[in-house]
């Protein structure tokens, strides 16, 4: 799909008149940070053209260099700031070497509701996300919060010791019913393609590494199940080089190694391995509920054919293979 992100409509407006949150929306309704004075401009519909950002679409971290140069080129020049305290001139012709982006993570969600209720929840309540991918193919992807502002989508969350990921992430909500009485609802193909375009664009723009492209359940495994086991992480990796995936051969080697060894492996070692990968988990040495929830979140992401929360040989082999590939630094 060659859908150019530059043609996304940036729609910041009051889109529907409504009142109360629909009961379907449990998933996103509890992720509100304490309200602070950040509000979206609501002067009606704003259409903005975000041009020149999709040239470097290979999401490997290198191409972000160009994005930075063009940002600096746009800076340049001088401007005058005047207010009741006085007037100053600001010159942006020098640029510091030491700088990076505030946007460190991309977090994917399902809305657990239909298009109308999702949009209402995300625009009329405190919960929010930077983008919403509709389930109606004729619609654009909606930008609901400026990328430089915080959206309230992650809630209590952590990854690799960083917490409160609302501060450092971009949240993408995908319209999908989620878990309906224990059965997850598949995503539509066009939604996955739109997500791929959007994630690639954001990862490239902000130099976000594959290891920081995650699901809500990864950063809040005790509370959340989205984007769920039907979200095709493997497809995103193999088709678009988005996010993390393991190498089969490495996995097979670990499977052989742990076939008999896993049952003798202390629980605390398993917990440390999950923690090394990024999950927030207490090293308790027992198969407690929090450990099962983390294993389940991991299985949703990397072994979706069976996500019973039990640590089996295949799951552990995948975890070891991922850590070897992405977290091998001592
Ligand atoms: Zn979520």
TrEMBL record:
- Supply the alphabetized keyword list: Cell wall biogenesis/degradation, Hydrolase, Signal
Which GO annotations describe the biological process of this protein?
A: cell wall organization; peptidoglycan catabolic process; peptidoglycan turnover
Family classification: Belongs to the N-acetylmuramoyl-L-alanine amidase 2 family.
- Top-level enzyme category: hydrolase
Q: Name one Pfam family in it.
A: PG_binding_1
Enzyme nomenclature, EC number:
3.5.1.28
Could you read off the lineage of the organism from its UniProt record? Bacteria, Fusobacteriati, Fusobacteriota, Fusobacteriia, Fusobacteriales
Region Disordered: start and end of each range? 44-82
- Leader sequence range is 1-23
Protein name, entry field:
N-acetylmuramoyl-L-alanine amidase
Q: Name one GO molecular function term.
A: N-acetylmuramoyl-L-alanine amidase activity
PANTHER family noted in UniProt:
N-ACETYLMURAMOYL-L-ALANINE AMIDASE AMID
Question: Which residues belong to any copy of the N-acetylmuramoyl-L-alanine amidase domain?
Answer: 91-228
Q: Which InterPro entries match?
A: Amidase/PGRP_sf, Amidase_domain, NAMLAA_amidase_2, Peptidoglycan-bd-like, PGBD-like_sf, PGBDSf
Organism per entry: Leptotrichia shahii
Kindly state which reaction or reactions the protein catalyses.
Answer: Hydrolyzes the link between N-acetylmuramoyl residues and L-amino acid residues in certain cell-wall glycopeptides
